[in-house]
């Protein structure tokens, strides 16, 4: 199935060579945790995950056509 992936801020470089066009083909029953593994994202750098605009956990099972946004920790003041 095909997913649309968008990584933000310091995570963007992890798309290089894997899904530079923002799309990723994966097997059915793929979870957010699998996407983190596929993209080789450091666990401590994945803070928020949104699927189709809704906050989800890493155990969320994805469906074809889902839009996934992954954000790192953000500091500010």
UniProtKB/TrEMBL annotation:
SUPFAM superfamilies: MoaD/ThiS. It comes from the Bacteria. Gene3D superfamilies: 3.10.20.30. InterPro entries: Beta-grasp_dom_sf, Mopterin_synth/thiamin_S_b, ThiS/MoaD-like. Pfam families: ThiS. This is Molybdenum cofactor biosynthesis protein MoaD.
């Amino acid at each position: 199935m095909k997913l649309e992936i968008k990584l933000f801020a310091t995570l963007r470089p992890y798309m290089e060579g894997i899904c530079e066009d923002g799309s990723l083909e994966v097997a059915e029953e793929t979870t957010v945790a699998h996407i983190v593994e596929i993209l080789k994202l450091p666990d401590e750098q994945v803070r928020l995950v949104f699927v189709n605009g809704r906050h989800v956990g890493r155990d969320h099972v994805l469906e074809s056509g889902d839009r996934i946004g992954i954000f790192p920790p953000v500091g500010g003041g």
